[in-house]
Amino acid sequence: MELNEVTITKAIIERFSNKFMEYTDVDVAIVGAGPSGLVASYFLAKAGMKVALFERKLSIGGGMWGGGMMFNEIVVQEEGKEILDVFDINTREYETGYFTADAVECVTTLGSYATKAGVKVFNCMTVEDVIIRDGRVTGLVIIWTPVEMAGLHVDPLSIKAGYVIESTGHPLELLHVIERKADIRLNTDSGHIMGERSMWADKAEGLTVENTREICPGVYVCGMAANAAFGGPRMGPIFGGMLLSGKKVAQEIINAGNA
Ligand code: 48H
Fold first, then answer.
1. Which residues pair with 140 in a beta bridge?
2. What is the predicted pLDDT for the residue at 222?
């Protein structure tokens, strides 16, 4: 059979368009495919939810690829290792209570489990705004990342979501937009974004999970975004908190959906 370039083109356009059309209305839209967003997406899809995961970059994985300072190994504590076990990711004990894992194995395996569980990843798409109805976030406003990068004046598109998870990491991008544009009081002590604090691994790991919750109607924060929202410290290249946070946010949304 002779391969036809136009058939290849049509296959891509039609398949992508159909996928995109189907995911314009989802149960959960996740912003950011770092470790916390990937883990959250997997557990939600496993529970039968329709999940779209939007990632600005071409690649998923966020800050996990580079381990610590580009030494591509990560560290997890016992509880974090238990999540890596769910994904069958190899870990090695370094000292009592400290386990290491290959950062590349972590990202590729989390991505593989998530997509095989049914998560649809939309990479190269940036979430730039939200839709709000009656004080609740009901959807996302999205644009191709190259449009953002080139500074082109192109209007975005929108999708509808039952729940939104912000897992954009340190910058906490979505909440900054919500705070700037909407009269919504956030579920923090001050009612506003509290901002990330300096490094304290031991405290930060627990707080990441504690801070993983609904921050305003329809929006949950997880991973580093949770600490940036609620004023928790950073933790450096220990990733257990990110993984546990991803699992927790999925469970919170599953519970909310069943309530
Ligand atoms: C679409 C977006 C947008 C947007 C950002 O930073 P991440 O890896 O996030 P987490 O929270 O899952 O993991 C944090 C971890 O990597 C880390 O940085 C740690 C542990 N730091 C500790 C320390 O002390 O420094 O991933 C976030 C992802 C990235 O891939 C971004 O490209 C993406 O979100 N993203 N995607 N629309 N508006 N903003």
1. 130, 159
2. 98
